[in-house]
């Protein structure tokens, strides 16, 4: 029987930046698909509340834990705790991210480092720590949240696009290295979805209207529209898919004048 298997029952997932926005939505979606979920974020109170609410709504086991994804020691401590408490890690979603709205001439070195470390370095450090475990157990699913900015330039936000382009290439590199061990690595590249990271900018009617006009579907994305692609990549149904970058963008990257 040819039946697609997107059930994540029995799997343990870790989602970085899980306290709010895209990360929280993805964590909840993975839980509804059957996974037990560990949410990490720098703000401990926020991520613990998110974990509790997801557990209450889905019935899955959850844990909210503070983690600095730019710091190897913090990551190692979290990965060790998850393995001790849950026994394994089957899924990693690298979602933590940040941005600054400065052009190249105005950007400071500290701002550059902040964005590159949070968006790019963290993906390597988390994937390395969790990947060691996945390689040993001969199974794993890693999904990296990139951006259409990995392909398109932005008017402002110089370090953001390069950091996400790095994530896409790192995705392919790790996919190539770990495929033989049963570990798949894929990326999702969203267009504009309203989150705490961009909600202030989207309050500008002119800016929001320009985005909607730039999008062939004529609207911004809804967070639930990111859940299904991530669940697919994390499932056994995507067992032969690795090294891919899926644009979830309402057609934006193929827009023609």
Automatic annotation (TrEMBL):
GO terms for molecular function: glucose 1-dehydrogenase [NAD(P)+] activity. It holds the Pfam family adh_short_C2. SUPFAM superfamilies: NAD(P)-binding Rossmann-fold domains. InterPro entries: KR_dom, NAD(P)-bd_dom_sf, SDR_fam. Its EC number is 1.1.1.47. Residues 11-194 form the Ketoreductase domain. The keyword Acetylation does not apply. Keywords: Oxidoreductase. PANTHER family: 3-OXOACYL-[ACYL-CARRIER-PROTEIN] REDUCTASE (PTHR42760:SF133), SHORT-CHAIN DEHYDROGENASES/REDUCTASES FAMILY MEMBER (PTHR42760). Belongs to the short-chain dehydrogenases/reductases (SDR) family. This is Glucose 1-dehydrogenase. It comes from Alicyclobacillus fastidiosus.
């Amino acid at each position: 029987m040819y039946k697609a298997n997107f059930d994540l029952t029995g799997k343990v997932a870790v989602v970085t930046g899980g306290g709010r926005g895209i990360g929280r939505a993805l964590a909840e979606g993975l839980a509804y698909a059957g996974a037990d979920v560990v949410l990490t974020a720098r703000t401990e109170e926020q991520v613990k509340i998110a974990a509790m609410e997801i557990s209450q709504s889905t019935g899955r086991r959850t844990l909210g834990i503070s983690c600095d994804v730019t710091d190897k020691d913090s990551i190692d401590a979290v990965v060790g705790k998850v393995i001790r408490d849950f026994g394994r890690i089957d899924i990693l979603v690298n979602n933590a991210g940040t941005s600054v709205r400065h052009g190249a001439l105005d950007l400071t070195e500290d701002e550059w480092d902040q964005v590159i470390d949070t968006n790019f370095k963290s993906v390597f450090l988390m994937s390395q720590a969790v990947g060691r475990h996945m390689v040993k157990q001969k199974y794993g699913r890693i999904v990296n949240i990139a951006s259409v900015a990995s392909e398109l330039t932005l008017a402002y936000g110089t370090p953001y696009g390069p950091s996400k382009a790095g994530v896409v290439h790192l995705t392919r590199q790790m996919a190539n290295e770990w495929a033989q061990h049963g570990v798949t690595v894929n990326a999702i590249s969203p267009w504009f979805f309203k989150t705490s990271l961009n909600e202030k900018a989207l309050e500008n009617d002119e800016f929001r209207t320009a985005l909607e006009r730039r999008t062939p579907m004529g609207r911004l994305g809804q967070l639930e529209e990111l859940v299904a692609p991530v669940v697919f990549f994390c499932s056994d149904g995507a067992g032969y898919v690795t090294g891919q970058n899926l644009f979830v963008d309402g057609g934006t990257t193929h827009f023609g004048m």
